[in-house]
Amino acid sequence: MSDWSRGWPAPAKLNLMLRITGRRADGYHELQTVFQFLDLCDELDFRVRKDGKVRRLDPLPGVAPEADLTVRAARLLRNYAGVAPGVDIALRKRLPMGGGLGGGSSNAATVLHALNHLWGCGLDDAELAVLGLRLGADVPIFVHGHAAWAEGVGERLRPIALPEPWYLVIAPDCHVATGEVFSAPELTRNSRPIIIRAFIAGDRRNDCLPVVRERYPAVSQVIEWLEERAEARLTGTGGCVFAEFASASAAEQVRQQVPADWQAWVARGCNRSPLRGRLEHD
Fold first, then answer.
1. Looking at 172-249, which runs of residues are DSSP E strands?
2. Which domains can be identified in the chain, with CATH numbers?
3. Which one from 3, 13, 42, 45 is the annotated catalytic residue?
4. Cα 105 to the center of its chain, rounded Å
5. Which residues contact residue 273 at a Cβ distance below 8 angstroms, ignoring those fewer than 6 apart?
6. Backbone dihedral region of 258: left (phi > 0), alpha (psi from -120 to 50 degrees) or beta?
7. φ, ψ dihedrals at 180, nearest 5°
8. What residues contact 144, with CB distance under 8 A and at least 6 apart?
9. Cα gap 267→168, rounded to integer Å
């Protein structure tokens, strides 16, 4: 029981569009969005413990265990499933925090799936997704692991088949606070809902874009730079900006021009999460 189970992927996602269609009485926003995964991933390792303790071995500075999504996900699953083991969790972080790539939510979903397997909880995807929603609105998409059209607060998912292009993803040197963006008085909250056919035809609007550009000049600077080379888009509330390319080499050619103070990756769009492959392998 002391051996590590290593290399569990926690992939990034892109929001290929984001429309805010209303606001609920509880403060959450009704939205429409399209999720697609990237082959760019954080990785997690797990070591089952016999003493019931849940530990993150490399805690984020200034983040208490009670606020750490990996720890919260493990404790939530353990309590729900009524199992006794604990776990040590190690995380190799590649995805930027505050970038709109879903890193924290993806980490939580990978914890739920990995420990459901390692602890022998026997829960199905639907049960894990319900648990995940307690941790965050984006967690269910990572649990389900398929590109999807999403509505509600992002939890009502319909699988969608999309092209799988190459993307250049650029992270400016800033952390965008999702809560600030969604609470901004100038945020559009009454977009007309659309249907999937309209998205496929090219409606890729992101209602958060004007708010983020106004409040985060570093993001606006990246968009202006990338717009000179490709169609620049914002994922979620940002701050990562991305553009689509037909080949890895075309994306890489632009990546090599990215200023040194910005992080940048070339990644493949994936309709099937890399985590699904790991689950089938195990």
1. 233-234, 241-245
2. 4-160 (3.30.230.10), 166-270 (3.30.70.890)
3. 13
4. 6
5. 9, 11, 37, 142, 145, 146
6. beta
7. -65, -40
8. 125, 129, 157
9. 7
What confidence tens digit (pLDDT) does each residue in 91-113 have? 999 999 889 999 999 999 999 99
Give 12's DSSP letter: E
Q: Which of 39, 42, 68, 138 is catalytic?
A: 138
Distance CA 70, CA 54 (A): 10
Its pTM stands at 0.95
207 catalytically annotated: no
Going by C-beta distance under 8 Å and a sequence separation of 6 or more, which residues neighbour residue 166? 244, 245, 246, 247, 248, 250, 251, 266, 267, 268, 269
221-235: average pLDDT: 98
Stretch 13-22: mean pLDDT: 97
- Note if 138 is an active site residue: yes
Spatial CB neighbours of 68, under 8 Å, sequence gap ≥ 6: 56, 59, 60
